[in-house]
Specification:
Jelly Rolls, mainly beta, 2 helices, 2 domains
């Protein structure tokens, strides 16, 4: 009996021993497995590199600039109306600028107009160039002469052209004179009554003159008068340059010009040259290049 009990204890002891060993082995195996698992576990650091690409878009505007400058041919027209010569010059410049990509078109047009008013000389044969002094009427005691140079004295020549007016030989006495009546309504003048009666017009006169010099005798002199006449030839006014003596140039020419208001109602003008002798027998005063204009 006792033997059976001891045998049972022994078996129990063996069972416990082998059970513990089996448990320990299992635990060790599990431990090893765990360690192995732990060791074999690889931690991979996923490094994500984000590549930031910056794209810079450069828009290049090709500035194609076309500069076309067009200058029109200069047109000059000369028109003679009334007693006015009008010269008009028109110049047109066109500049076109074209920019491509956003297309911009700029067009500039500039027009310049220049008008030059040249008053018409109303006198016929103002410089004694015509044979017989056409257009003039002798009104003095002696005749005015057409002098082509040195007729009375050597060295006293025309201012321009081939002839000038000379006071003359004075055979009939002094003064000698020439007159020309200028009709403003008809002929090449062709003013209207309305234009003449504005009260703003002026008669402008000019001429060149010279006087013969001698230390023995006083100078002879030249003079111009203008008389404004109505349509009935009534005198509306008279203007006088006074006696003109050119003492600074011997021989040589001096210049005279003046401006006079045109009376309302004027329809014609008497333009008169007067040559006066102050000594000797000849009338040695000269006039050339007369001009009468309305401005």
């Amino acid at each position: 009996m006792i033997g059976i009990i001891l045998l049972g204890s022994l078996v129990a002891t063996l069972v416990l021993y082998f059970g513990y060993s089996l448990t320990a082995a299992t635990t060790a195996t599990a431990t090893r497995t765990t360690a192995s698992t732990t060791t074999s576990t690889t931690t991979t650091l996923a490094t994500t590199t984000t590549a930031t690409t910056t794209t810079t878009t450069m828009t290049t505007t090709s500035a194609t600039t076309t500069s076309a400058t067009t200058t029109s041919a200069t047109t000059t027209s000369a028109t003679t109306t009334s007693a006015t010569t009008t010269t008009t010059t028109t110049t047109t410049s066109t500049t076109t600028t074209t920019t491509t990509s956003a297309t911009t078109t700029t067009t500039t047009t500039t027009t310049y107009t220049t008008t030059t008013m040249v008053p018409l000389n109303l006198l016929v044969d103002p410089g004694a160039e015509s044979p017989g002094l056409a257009g003039w009427t002798q009104t003095g005691s002696s005749n005015v002469l057409q002098d082509t140079g040195g007729l009375e004295f050597a060295g006293y020549n025309p201012h321009t052209g081939s002839a000038c007016f000379a006071g003359g030989f004075g055979l009939g006495g002094s003064p000698s004179s020439l007159l020309q009546n200028v009709n403003l309504l008809n002929g090449m003048q062709n003013f209207s009554a309305a234009q003449l009666d504005t009260g703003t017009l002026h008669a402008k006169i000019s001429f060149y003159y010279q006087s013969y010099y001698s230390w023995l005798y006083p100078y002879d002199d030249a003079e111009v008068t203008i008389t404004f006449l109505s349509n009935t030839n009534a005198v509306l006014g008279t203007q006088d340059t006074g006696y003109q003596i050119c003492s600074s140039n011997n021989p040589g020419w001096c210049y005279y010009n003046n401006l006079y208001s045109l009376p309302v109602g004027t329809r014609s003008i008497d333009y008169k040259m007067i040559f006066t002798r102050n000594s000797g027998t000849k009338i040695t005063a000269y006039i050339d290049d007369n001009s009468l204009t309305l401005v």
